[in-house]
Design brief:
Blueprint lengths: L8 E3 L1 H11 L11 H9 L2 E2 L9 H10 L4 H9 L4 E5 L3 E5 L7 H9 L11 H12 L2 E2 L17 H12 L2 E7 L2 E6 H4 L11 H16 L1 E3 H7 L4 H11 L2 E5 L6 E3 L1 H4 L10 E2 L10 H8 L21 E5 L2 E11 L2 E9 L5 H14 L4 E4 L8 H12 L1
Parallel strand pairs: 1-9, 14-15
Antiparallel strand pairs: 2-4, 3-4, 5-7, 6-7, 8-10, 9-10, 11-12, 12-13, 13-14
Length: about 400
């Protein structure tokens, strides 16, 4: 593990929290002219996930920063005009197309390692590439079918081949159509000025460490490395040359690094009040969320129902730069249903009501129904506040 040099600054826990909020787009006026693409460039990635409750996570992330931007606008911003591509970063993510060269190290690593669990028939890889070249963008179904007749992981040869070509960088995902990946050749989908893999591993990793530090504002070794799923030793080798500066943060107990631009001015401005996707990069890492916000959160979608505490897709509520509660939402026709609400005391009621009303309007719901509040004595107050907000 790297030993941090003498810190350039000493930050309070509140300083670090505000720096993180501003870096992630929740403190200060958003750049509305840059819109969804501006959010994507600032974050460096937006995580994808199959779960859709209010909306899918890649829609919720720009919504949380910009407000009720149209959902079609979100999809168009990602997938039209060669502005983005999908690849493996923190997980499966939408990435700004400008970052394509910096993932060359990962594409090379995939080529150099064994492929687990999926044997590929002779000629299948070339067949898929040739079909894409001849026919243009295709889903796995259009390439010959995604599955064999076994379990869900029993992929067909065409699916194995196209996913391998995606990992290698010969193929890219150019959009999601009904949540299916649409594949095309990289040589067609990536701008020629960016379509090169001549950056060495050290340069790629150095850029991703810097980008993660900028997106987080301030973070520990684990925070910054995890942003693009880098190894700790990769971070250690790159951090000194990345331009990030060492800092200490009161109460963190670990060395930290910050984006020097984040230290140049005091974070000020309007705080956003909103529901957050559990896959939002502000809170996706549990230890960091606990350290910055004193808030313990766990996605319970994959926890057996009887063992859930806060609900299937509990979304933390951000208000005033703090996490003040949780809402487990659902939709029933034109009603947003708050199946379970957790409140951090009476002061959280107005913020949670505002967040629920805005989210309801965004997804086309004209009513909000609260089913359960963890503090029953606050349930009537929350319902009353929802009525005031709607007026």
């Amino acid at each position: 593990m790297t030993t941090a040099p003498r810190p350039a600054a000493e930050l309070s826990a509140d300083d670090a929290r505000r720096i993180a909020l501003r870096a992630q787009g929740f403190l200060g006026a958003p750049d509305r002219r840059a819109g969804v693409r501006g959010v994507l460039r600032a974050l460096g990635q937006v995580q994808l996930d199959t779960i859709s409750v209010l909306a899918r996570s890649h829609e919720l992330i720009p919504y949380a920063r910009l407000g009720a931007v149209g959902r079609t606008t979100v999809e168009d911003a990602y997938w039209t005009g060669s502005h983005a591509f999908e690849y493996w970063s923190h997980a499966a993510c939408v990435l700004p197309v400008e970052e394509w060269p910096h993932f060359a190290f990962r594409r090379r690593a995939y080529r150099d390692r064994p492929h687990w669990g999926h044997e590929l028939s002779a000629g299948a890889y070339d067949k898929v590439v040739d079909q894409l070249r001849a026919e243009g963008p295709c889903t796995a179904t259009e390439l010959g079918g995604a599955k064999n007749k076994g379990e869900w992981w029993d992929w067909s040869d065409s699916k194995i081949a196209v996913e391998r070509a995606l990992m290698y960088g010969e193929v890219v995902v150019v959009e999601r159509r009904g949540w299916k990946r649409v594949y095309d050749l990289a040589e067609r989908a990536i701008p020629q000025a960016l379509l090169h893999d001549d950056l060495d591993d050290a340069e790629c990793v150095r850029r991703l460490v810097r980008q993660a530090g900028e997106a987080l504002g301030v973070g520990t070794r684990a925070d910054i490395a995890d942003y693009h799923r880098l190894k700790g030793e990769q971070f250690d080798a790159a951090v000194e040359a990345s331009g990030l500066v060492p800092v200490t943060v009161a109460g963190w107990g670990k060395p930290a690094w910050a984006d020097p631009a984040a230290l140049a001015s005091e974070p000020r401005g309007r705080h956003r009040t909103t529901l957050l996707s559990p896959f939002d990069s502000l809170i996706w890492e549990r230890a960091r969320t606990e350290r910055i916000f004193g808030f313990t959160h766990r996605l319970e979608a994959y926890v057996p129902k009887q063992k859930r505490i806060h609900g299937y897709f509990a979304m933390p509520v951000l208000a005033g730069g703090r996490l003040v509660g949780r809402v487990d939402p659902a939709r029933e026709g034109g009603t947003l249903v708050a199946r379970q609400v957790t409140l951090d005391g009476p002061k959280a009621v107005p913020a949670v009501a505002r967040a629920l009303r805005e989210a309801a309007g965004w997804v086309g719901c004209d009513a909000v129904r609260v089913e359960r509040v963890d503090a029953p004595e606050l349930a009537k107050e929350l319902v009353a506040e929802l009525g005031r907000v709607s007026g």
